[in-house]
Write a structure and sequence with these properties.
Elements: H1 7-11, H2 13-30, H3 34-54, H4 59-69, H5 76-93, H6 97-109, H7 116-122, H8 125-131, H9 137-153, H10 160-176, H11 185-199, H12 203-216, H13 221-232, H14 238-250, H15 260-271, H16 277-281, H17 288-310, H18 315-333, H19 340-351, H20 354-363, H21 373-395, H22 420-425, H23 427-434, H24 442-460, H25 466-493, H26 498-508, H27 513-525, H28 532-551, H29 557-570, H30 572-585, H31 590-596, H32 602-616, H33 633-648, H34 654-665, H35 672-683, H36 693-699, H37 703-710, H38 719-731, H39 735-751, H40 759-783, H41 786-792, H42 796-801, H43 807-832, H44 838-860, H45 874-882, H46 885-888, H47 892-911, H48 917-955, H49 966-982, H50 986-1001, H51 1009-1018, H52 1021-1025, H53 1029-1051, H54 1053-1059, H55 1086-1110, H56 1113-1125, H57 1134-1154, H58 1156-1172, H59 1179-1182, H60 1208-1219, H61 1226-1232, H62 1235-1244, H63 1262-1270, H64 1273-1283, H65 1289-1294, H66 1310-1319, H67 1323-1340, H68 1352-1380, H69 1402-1410, H70 1418-1436, H71 1450-1485, H72 1494-1509, H73 1522-1533, H74 1541-1555, H75 1562-1573, H76 1579-1592
Length: about 1600
């Protein structure tokens, strides 16, 4: 700030400075801005005084000028005193003494201007002393302290009552008078004022007395509140609060108890806003921190109690613990200090001041305040009052009077609710603060629930506006919150109140199950942790549950059930959670627990359903056992419990079913176990593979027969439960989705779910999925009404193409629909025309079938490729899939059996003396009614079956179109109909077998029964290997039924002639056209049929042994299951039975330790097989082993796992397929054409091989030959290693213990064998011989050898010798092998005898081609094979040096390799040369083949190429054995050997196959040369085939 006093003024003070200063001061004091003037004057005076202190101006000069200036302002002396005060402080701090002296002099000079008192106020006592204004500064200080104390700190003592007691007496009289008259608060206030004035009363004391009187007279609110309000205008606002606070303080010592009247007064004053809650709250105890601490302590204590309850305490410790607890409880019973905040809160609630009450509650931990019973009850009372009008309007049940509740007299209380919308404003809020403590008032609980029920009624009725709907939605969510936060927790704290539980269910059942389950989940998993009381309750519930469960047995179900019921009324979630955990551990608890649950309320049952689902969905539990091959036992136990509990009690199923559906959507099929159990228990529909044939038979009857004889359990009492299940499925639209999901999940199990899982488990899950589908579909079919079913199940093409349902499942679901449809149409037609004749009825039935099935025939066309319908018609396909066993046959024996049972029962009832008569009567009536029902049902079914058969008779001509071949037709039939359906269910398996028989009996055109059965039995390996466990069982049933039919025909010539004699199914000449008529010669005669049956048995044995030897789990398990099922009809032949027995015995030994389940299966089968042994017959009794020569046609070559071998003459007659009927004159022509034709035909006529779909491969014998001709030794070796599918069972029968010893090695005489034994070389010699052989083979490679056709007689002789030769040989081989010390040659191949054999003459071949089919048993089939072998061997020109398995050194391998390469090159060159020849040959033979239809020729080519090279068809051909390859080498070598050696050559060959050196006779050489001449006819033609198959390979 700039100086106001320039230095010039001071210098020239006397001249002009003084006057200038005076002028400045005048100007400043006249300044209108008072503040600015004041500050400037202060500064001017300060500067002047400061110049004096510094000595620039004399003090008297200054005092003079100040005397002039002092008049300018009134407050000038005060301003001057301020300036002196500042300077006093400043100078006292300075060290220069003269300045201080100047200051003192100035003050003394100015004493006349400023009074002493002002200076004494403002200057320091020391300064005052130096100025002489006071004597001693110390005394002055003491005196000022005393005065201050007296003024500010000393209280004046009034003894008011003593001095003014009359005034207070009058005051109390005024306030205590009768206030009922016209006395108003204003009047009394005037009196009080005059009393205060007159008697000089203290106003605060007066206010205190008014409050005291108000406390005593609480009913006069209307008087006292206005009085206090008016009185407060005269006081400070805080006074009332302080007085009240002082009153509360008075009661705060530990023994004090605040009276409720004081709380009430405070509450009323708060409600009328005469005091502020914040101001009063601080006066109340305990502090908020103390409350929070107490709350935390309560939680900790609750948790400790829980810990104690869950700990295992030994009995000795128990007594000590109890004593300690008692002491603690005694301590606790000491009264807690008074909580004034809660007292005030209670008073607020009582008078209805919700606003303030809420703000107090908000200061405390949640539910802390309401955990005190008085407060909870006060709040409940407030809610009662608030909801009264609405409750009276909508909540009171019909017929209940109820006790109305009067409203609060208080106008400031919350407004009473008239509508649901108003509930939301206050009531819901109050309830939320109340929380679990609504349990203190069950009546209010019931009222709230009833209001909820009424609201839900309104909420669910339509017809409200959009705005209203939104409001209702909001209200609904509020109601759910109240239920979650208030109702359920309160129920937990109520003491087993079953009525409340039922009341609550009344509201809950209006919620969708999703909401209910959400609420239960919150209740179970969160609510119990929210409050210390609930924590304790949970622990006590678990403790009690443990107590009950430990003592629960079958015997004490009733008392335990009552205890469980009591416990469940309040805390169902906790109880059930524990019970379920016990059931998962101990499945023997299931029955007693289910029985003990009969005392539950409806709400509890619903909670139980939720708890079950939660337990099932528990993510922490593994669904598989540790071995990963079986489903966990906890899941199985839960599923079983589910079924039992849902059946016995009326529990809603929707949630559980939806859970299963959701799991399926997620691709998880474990939980199907639950659905399976539920359907089984509730509907009584059982799916098991253990059904007896009697039960199965009963299952093909009507519903009544099924119920009586088809199931294991009683299913009489399932009517109600199955109705419940049906309703649940229909109400929630789950019936079809579940079916479709299961059908889709079957493949999902394998391709999606099964990736990581054990094969065994995947099989189990697949079976479970499939079984549940069958069971569930069965349930729907029998329980849904026709309309329901038809409305829900879409058409077959939609099911398959849109929903991707597998065809078998789709037809399974649609089948009941067709049956319903047809029967309803039939009934309509019957009503329309009342014709009673049987013919009319049948006609109507057929009409109704056509109407219903026509769209189905259209629909199925889209399911398969168009070419499928070339062979079978859509009508046939649909008929097959839409019929059931019920339609095909009446199970008379089952009906009779059940009727007889009932008769026996009735007799037993009559004989029973103890039964009371009325019960007897009832039981007899029941039995009679049942009997009548069964008989009626049987009659109905009989009529139905007759109608169906009539319908089939009319349809059958259009069934099989056979546009390609009959063979192809059978393939399609098996592929698309039989195989998928026979493994669908046990009844379907029986149905398939019956259907095949039916098609045969109907004389269906183009259906070859023989081919069909041949395909089914010929190679079952693939079908068996691709089955799951249950499918194998069903497949076994199917084979069993098929075998039953075959065995019946086989057993008796009369039956055979009657049922098959002249049926088109047994024609052996298959024509391309649909013409099936033929003379008797074309039919398969009885004896040949027996051969064929033997061949089938042999094939079954071969397949079984192969499966048993694979070592694969699935193969072994499935074949054992199949074998067990077909035991009644197979094995019938002794040697086949023995071969099987040995193999099974070996399995028993091998698997005992490794795979106990296989061991158990094998042991079971082994035992049953032994018991069947007495019924087995030798082979010669089963069929004639040596048929007459003219019928001795070559048997089919075993085609290994893939080949299906047709009966021979069928194969040979296939030629007829191409030729039609040839005339006698053609014979001569054929003779002239030589062997070529035979070879051509046999090769060309091989029917197709079907893939391993289970449709066994082709009926051919020639395929093998082509393959083997082209194979090199190396390839064969390799093939053996790959396949080695065990030697055929018959060889097994010879080579004991399943060791593979050659069976049919050929020799003429015993001596020759002995001779060779001596010659057998040791391994050193072998090497040399091998080298010689190699050289020899090199020389001879260029020469070709062709098979010689020998005379007919030679061939016959050979055949007669055959059986004896085999026996001799077997003996010799055994002895030889013993001598050699184990140099055994593993033989992989079918039975064979590789001796050069005279081929049958041309004319004989011709004759044979026309002969009817014969099947020569494997024992004599070898001759034929050998003819073919030779044919192959000689013409194939394999010049390969194939050493025996015993020689395995590297040197030999190299030699072999080189050899092989050379021989291949040469053969290629040779083949090129011959190509031209072949073309010529084709032209030559076109004459004989002119009748061949074009398409069959094409197909033949395909077959010769592709089929010939198919792997499976290679495995067991005769040339697979090392012997034959060696024979080839020796042929080359033998040129030089003498004629005499020719005698012994046959035996030698056999022996040398094992040792490795062979010699050929000249006799053979001559044959070879002759053959060479005919090369143009035979060899070249064959080469053509070799080449084609080679290319494919």
């Amino acid at each position: 700030m700039a100086a106001l006093l320039p230095a010039e003024w001071i210098k020239n003070w006397e001249k002009g400075g003084k006057s200038e200063f005076v002028q400045l001061c005048r100007a400043l004091s006249e300044n209108k801005n008072h503040d600015v003037g004041f500050r400037d004057i202060q500064q001017a005076l300060y500067e002047l005084a400061y110049h004096v202190v510094r000595g620039n101006l004399k003090h008297d000069q200054a005092s003079n000028v100040l005397g002039d200036v002092i008049e300018f302002r009134e407050d000038m002396p005060s301003i001057l005193a301020d300036v002196f005060c500042i300077l006093d402080i400043e100078t006292s701090c300075l060290e220069e003494k003269n300045k201080r002296d100047h200051f003192t002099q100035l003050v003394l000079a100015c004493l006349y201007l400023v009074s002493d008192t002002v200076l004494k106020e403002r200057l320091d006592p020391e300064t005052l002393e130096s100025l002489g204004l006071i004597k001693q500064s110390q005394q002055f200080n003491q005196k000022s302290v005393k005065i201050k104390t007296k003024l500010f700190y000393k209280q004046q003592k009034f003894n008011l009552l003593r001095e003014e007691n009359e005034g207070y007496a009058k005051l109390i009289a005024e306030l205590g008078q009768d206030l009922s008259g016209n006395i108003t608060s204003d009047l009394i206030l005037e009196n009080i004022k005059s009393l205060i004035g007159c008697f000089n009363l203290d106003p605060n004391r007066v206010l205190d007395i008014i409050l005291e009187v108000y406390e005593c007279r609480p009913e006069y609110d209307d008087f006292f509140v206005p009085l206090i309000e008016s009185y407060m205008y005269m006081c400070e606002p805080q006074t009332l609060c302080h007085i009240l606070g002082f009153k509360f303080k008075f009661y705060q010592d530990p023994s004090g108890e605040t009276p409720s009247s004081l709380y009430r007064v405070a509450a009323v004053l708060l409600q009328h806003n005469l005091i502020d809650l914040e101001d009063l709250y601080v006066h109340l105890l305990p502090g908020d921190n103390a409350i929070i601490e107490e709350h935390k302590r309560e939680i900790v204590e609750a948790k400790q109690i829980v810990r104690k309850l869950t700990m295992v305490v030994l009995s000795s410790e128990k007594t000590e613990e109890k004593e300690k607890e008692k002491e603690k409880e005694e301590e606790k019973t000491e009264k807690p200090p008074d909580n004034q905040k809660l007292g005030l809160l209670e008073a607020l609630l009582k008078i209805g001041d919700w606003h303030h009450a809420q703000s107090i509650m908000d200061q405390m931990p949640p539910f802390y305040s309401t955990s005190h019973k008085p407060i909870a009850i006060a709040l409940c009372r407030l809610v009662h009052v608030t909801i009264e009008p609405l409750y009276r309007r909508v909540g009171v049940p019909k017929g209940a009077k109820g006790s109305p509740i009067s409203s609060l007299p208080n106008k400031r209380a919350p407004k009473q609710a008239e509508s649901f919308e108003e509930l939301r404003k206050e009531v819901f809020n109050m309830l939320c603060y109340l929380g679990p403590h609504l349990s203190h008032d069950p009546i209010l609980f019931a009222k709230v629930v009833r209001l909820g029920k009424a609201f839900m009624k309104e909420f669910q009725s339509d017809g409200s506006k959009q705005e209203d709907k939104e409001k209702m939605e909001t209200l609904f969510s509020c109601l759910l919150s109240i239920t979650d936060q208030v109702l359920l927790p309160s129920l937990s704290l109520m003491d087993c109140n079953a009525c409340m539980s039922e009341e609550l269910w009344g509201m809950f059942k209006t919620f969708p199950y999703q909401y209910r389950y959400r609420l239960y989940g919150q209740w179970k998993n969160e609510t119990y942790n929210s409050h210390p009381l609930l924590v304790k309750v949970k622990a006590q519930t678990i403790d009690r549950a443990k107590y009950i469960m430990k003592r629960l047995t079958k015997e004490n179900v009733k008392p335990s059930g009552r205890q469980i019921g009591k416990l469940s009324h309040s805390n169902p979630t906790i109880l059930f959670d524990y019970i379920l955990s016990q059931i998962q551990k101990y499945d023997n608890l299931i029955t007693p627990v289910v029985d003990s649950l009969k005392y539950l309320t409806s709400l509890n049952y619903d909670v139980l359903a939720y708890c079950i689902i939660e337990a099932l969905a528990n993510p922490e539990k593994e669904r598989m056992k540790h071995d990963d091959t079986t489903i966990s036992s906890w899941l199985q136990s839960l599923a079983s419990f589910c079924g039992a509990v849902f059946r016995k009690y009326p529990i809603e199923l929707a949630g559980l079913l939806q859970y299963v559906a959701n799991q399926l959507k997620a691709g998880k099929s474990f939980d199907l176990l639950i659905l399976k159990e539920v359907v089984q228990k509730m509907a009584g529909i059982e799916i098991t593979e253990e059904m007896t044939m009697e039960q199965l038979e009963a299952m093909t009857g009507g519903e009544q027969l099924k119920a009586e004889g088809g199931y294991f359990g009683q299913i009489r009492n399932t009517k109600k439960s199955s109705q419940r299940l049906k309703d649940a499925l229909l109400d929630h639209d789950l019936a079809l989705p579940l079916c479709l999901l299961m059908a889709q999940q079957r493949n999902g199990v394998v391709f999606q779910e099964g990736g990581e899982k054990h094969l065994k488990l995947v099989g189990k899950l697949y079976d479970q999925c499939h079984d549940t589908l069958v069971q569930f579909g069965g349930f729907l079919a029998s329980n849904l009404s026709t309309e329901d079913y038809i409305k829900r199940v879409p058409s077959i093409d939609v099911l398959c193409n849109e929903f991707h349902t597998p065809h078998d499942a789709a037809f399974f679901l649609s089948r009941p629909m067709y049956a319903h449809h047809i029967s309803s149409k039939y009934d309509e037609l019957k009503k329309a025309e009342k014709g009673n004749k049987q013919q009319h009825k049948v006609h109507k039935y057929i009409t109704s079938c056509e109407l219903v099935m026509a769209p189905v025939h259209e629909a199925v066309i889209s399911l398969h490729l168009p070419k499928v319908w070339d062979d079978i018609s859509p009508q046939f396909y649909a008929t097959f899939w839409s019929l059931t066993m019920y339609d095909l046959a009446v199970p008379h024996s089952s009906y009779d059996r059940e009727v007889n049972k009932l008769k026996v029962q009735m007799k037993a009832i009559d004989d029973n003396q103890e039964m009371p008569p009325n019960k007897k009567k009832k039981e007899k009536e029941r039995c009679t009614a049942l009997q009548d029902k069964l008989l009626e049902e049987e009659k109905k079914q009989l009529e139905h079956v007759q109608r169906v058969l009539q319908r089939l008779k009319l349809e059958k001509d259009n069934w099989l179109l056979a546009k390609s071949t009959k063979n192809e037709t059978i393939t399609k039939f098996l592929q698309l109909c039989i195989f998928p359906r026979c493994i669908f269910s046990a009844i379907d398996a029986v149905y398939c077998a019956h259907f095949v028989e039916l098609v045969h009996q109907q004389k269906t055109p183009n259906f070859s029964t023989l081919l069909c059965y041949d395909r089914v039995f010929s190679d079952i390996i693939y079908t068996v290997a691709s089955c799951t466990e249950n499918e194998a069982s069903r497949y076994g049933r199917f084979l069993c039924c098929m075998l039953e039919t075959v065995t019946r025909w086989h057993s008796d010539r009369v039956i055979y002639e009657k049922e098959c004699g002249n049926y088109p199914g047994f024609l052996t000449i298959l024509r391309a056209t649909g013409f099936d008529g033929g003379n008797k010669a074309d039919q398969l005669d009885y004896e040949n049929f027996r051969h064929v049956v033997h061949k089938w048995h042999y094939k079954l044995t071969k397949a079984s042994v192969h499966c048993l030897e694979t070592g694969e789990y699935t193969h072994i398990r499935n074949i054992l299951i199949v074998l067990t099922k077909i035991l009644p009809w197979y094995p019938k032949v002794l040697n086949l039975g023995q071969a099987l027995e040995r193999r099974v015995h070996k399995i028993c030994q091998e698997e005992k330790e490794k795979r106990p389940d296989l061991y158990a299966l094998a042991m079971g089968y082994s035992g049953q097989l032994k018991s069947r042994k007495p019924f087995m017959i030798p082979e010669n009794e089963f069929h004639h082993k040596d048929p007459p020569a003219r019928n001795a046609v070559p048997a089919t070559v075993q085609n290994g796992p893939g080949g299906a071998g047709m009966p021979t003459s069928l194969t040979i007659n296939t030629v007829r397929l191409e030729e039609g009927t040839t005339e006698e004159t053609d014979k001569l022509k054929e003779k002239s054409q030589g062997v070529v034709k035979v070879i051509n035909k046999t090769v060309n006529a091989t029917p197709k091989v079907t893939t391993s779909n289970g449709n066994s491969a082709s009926n051919s014998k020639i395929i093998k030959e082509k393959d083997d001709k082209e194979k090199s030794g190396k390839e064969k070796d390799k093939e053996k290693k790959d396949k080695t599918p065990a030697a055929t069972p018959e060889m097994k029968a010879l080579g004991k213990d399943g060791k593979d010893k050659p069976k049919e090695e050929r020799a003429n005489k015993d001596e020759k064998a002995r001779e060779i034994k001596e010659k057998t070389p040791k391994s050193d010699k072998e090497k040399e011989k091998v080298k010689k052989e190699e050289k020899a083979s090199k020389e001879e490679k260029s020469k070709t050898v062709v098979t010689i056709i020998e005379s007919k007689s030679t061939a016959e002789k050979e055949r007669e010798k055959e059986p004896s030769r085999e026996r001799d040989l077997a003996k010799e081989m055994k002895s030889k092998e013993n001598a050699k010390g184990g140099e055994k040659v593993p033989v992989a191949g079918s039975l064979k005898s590789p001796v050069p054999r005279s081929e049958t003459s041309e004319s004989e071949r011709e004759q044979k081609r026309r002969k009817v089919d014969t099947h020569s048993s494997p024992s004599h089939s070898s001759t034929v094979k050998d003819n073919l072998n030779e044919l192959k061997d000689s013409s194939a020109k394999h010049y390969i040096n194939h050493t025996t398995p015993t020689l395995s050194k590297s040197k030999e391998r190299e030699v072999e390799k080189k050899d092989l390469d050379k021989s291949r090159e040469r053969s290629r060159e040779r083949e090129k040369k011959d190509e031209k020849d072949r073309k010529d040959r084709k032209r030559d033979h076109s004459n004989s083949d002119r009748e061949v239809p074009q398409d069959s020729t094409k197909r033949r080519k395909e077959e010769n190429g592709t089929t010939g090279s198919s792997k499976h068809s290679k495995s067991e051909s005769p040339s697979d054995s090392p012997r034959l390859n060696e024979k080839e080498k020796e042929k080359n070598k033998s040129k030089s050997s003498g004629k005499e050696k020719g005698d012994s050559i046959k035996a030698e060959k056999m022996e040398k196959s094992s040792s490795g050196s062979k010699k050929e006779s000249r006799h053979d050489k001559e044959k070879a040369e002759k053959k060479e001449k005919r090369d143009s006819t035979g060899g070249k033609e064959e080469k053509k085939h070799h080449k084609s198959s080679d290319k494919h390979r």
